[in-house]
């Protein structure tokens, strides 16, 4: 479904990614792990049209998408939850969710209902300012907003960042359910072992390049990967 080949990308004149390859199949759950600064977020941003393109190809459902801007990419069926600043704090929870459908003329009520069913706490707090929600709740707002258009592919950059351990498991369970319901997931995670255990396939990215690629289980079982990237 998503195919990235030989991608070179960065910011302005600064190249961060070199020859990155990446695949996400229909309904697949794929994780990218790697050290801080490896370029994981840059890969996600590149797929969403937010970096400087320098070479290679990004196709989604057999269509080249790299010259498109984010709004067009959303139309193609990709939604993105950034690592930082992923909600509008001064807007209410419901207004945030409605923003997820800004490219449409009107807010699809059935989608809003589907998001509330997935995250009941958002319905309970729909009139609360999103900036006053807890960390876990904010992450749900951000994910709920990204789900408003029922994407085929959801990009999640560190969805468990800053959450207490019990909430981390809860977040991963929610992501599993979104994937079980048919949405393909491309996720970056600092919680690498847990993420690799749950996903179908994983990529280890280091210094802007592919380092290892395999099923999550095989990456977890690989001594070199464990020692270099997973803390033993
Ligand atoms: N907007 C930007 N302008 C210039 N350089 C940037 C920008 N964003 C990121 N970089 C640089 O690109 C490199 C890769 O950053 P990126 O955020 O992709 O790493 P990451 O793997 O997501 O790291 P982390 O695990 O800390 O989130 C870093 O050296 C970073 O300083
Ligand atoms: Mg990052």
UniProtKB/TrEMBL annotation:
Domain of life, source organism? Archaea
One GO BP: L-amino acid transport
Species of origin: Natronosalvus rutilus
Give the protein name, as stated in the record: ABC transporter ATP-binding protein
Keywords (alphabetical) are: Amino-acid transport, ATP-binding, Nucleotide-binding, Transport
An annotated Gene Ontology molecular function: ATP hydrolysis activity
Q: Which family does it belong to?
A: Belongs to the ABC transporter superfamily.
Q: Which InterPro entries match?
A: AAA+_ATPase, ABC_transporter-like_ATP-bd, ABC_transporter-like_CS, BCAA_Transport_ATP-bd_LivF, P-loop_NTPase
Residue ranges annotated for the ABC transporter domain, each copy included: 2-232
Q: List the PROSITE patterns hit by this protein, alphabetically.
A: ABC_TRANSPORTER_1, ABC_TRANSPORTER_2
Q: SUPFAM superfamilies given for it?
A: P-loop containing nucleoside triphosphate hydrolases
Q: What is the lineage of its organism?
A: Archaea, Methanobacteriati, Methanobacteriota, Stenosarchaea group, Halobacteria
One Pfam family linked to the record: ABC_tran
Coiled-coil region list: none
